[in-house]
Amino acid sequence: MNNRLLLLGCAMCLLGPVFAADDDEHTPLGKQMEIFNDAYKAFRKETDPAKGAEQVREAQQAVLKGMGELPSMLTKMPDGRDKQMAAAQYRKMMGRLFVTLSEVEAAFIEGKIDDVARLVEILKEMKKAGHDKFMEE
Length: 137
Prior knowledge:
Layout: H1 2-15, H2 21-25, H3 28-43, H4 49-67, H5 72-75, H6 81-109, H7 113-134
Helix pairs in contact: 3-4, 4-6, 6-7
């Protein structure tokens, strides 16, 4: 299983330039991730607890909507166990992202801006890991 995913990853790296990256931005998932990214950029520097919590809720909604979609890399995979496992991994990562956003929201509500900053660093790592795993170059 892991070898297949590794081979798939290598193949996608080689074929990645064939697929236009701009196409991903126009998919339903791409649109939701753009909304998430705009909210993320806004709340990571926000110091007003009410505004920050509102921006986090906007990011949460985008993640929820995006969870029902699949990255284009996965939609191009042939149907079967590997695709199902990759889709489950994607949803698991999105679920963890949502939980962490909920923690950020709670930190804003409690006025714990230091906790927000710590959680934003975790979100940054999660975002990078997700992009590395599920985005074509």
